[in-house]
């Protein structure tokens, strides 16, 4: 199955103009209708998406008739659609680099569970909330197309506010249990989502434990064999379980370097590296620069 790895590639894949920003995009459905493929075969992408549909017909979205007016896509979720070119509304699309840039989103999946792959179910919000969410999407759209130097500060703020309002509704209506099982019966997807959430949870609640670097630790917590866990992760994401652990380690590293005054040695300790030199070697392998060089370029 085709895996789309960036927002720019996503736009090419569905036949719409390229994004204005590499890590964040917002579109009006009615603008897309001019060129978008109205029938798209199943594929996966590596981004989060939140969509608000105020009008539009469909034969299927993600394998079923879409009734909800707000719906989500998560990284590696299977996506497909067969729609009529009459949609109106908005969607936003952002990647893990965008998540990494917001200090409020250090525990993104735990804070916003509807963005998890196994909980990304569509639902209907009432008219008053729908109207308010539409205003937020419009504000994001306006800022996205503005030239103000602080426009992304407001985009972060409006997006966070949007997520909080959706979370309030999601929690109030307890979309759990049978609703989620009926929507997503794919055990592999559920295992991936549990693995991703466990990585995030473990580094927050049990830091300084070197076992957190090992996929075997997570396999034990999930009660599966490490080889099975790795095979499932590889099949869905194209990456190994270890690569996903390292991806989260790198995200935390970049956050701490850019957003805190902790020393390199302190960060290494917090991320369960036995030596600061081991952390520096790990960071340089992926970023092609030292932690100190990264901090100098990105710390505000």
TrEMBL record:
Keywords: DNA-binding, Transcription, Transcription regulation. It comes from the Bacteria. Residues 193-297 form the HTH araC/xylS-type domain. One of its GO terms (molecular function) is sequence-specific DNA binding. SMART domains: HTH_ARAC (SM00342). The keyword Transcription applies. InterPro entries: Homeodomain-like_sf, HTH_AraC. PANTHER family: ARAC-FAMILY TRANSCRIPTIONAL REGULATOR, TRANSCRIPTIONAL REGULATORY PROTEIN. This is AraC-like DNA-binding protein.
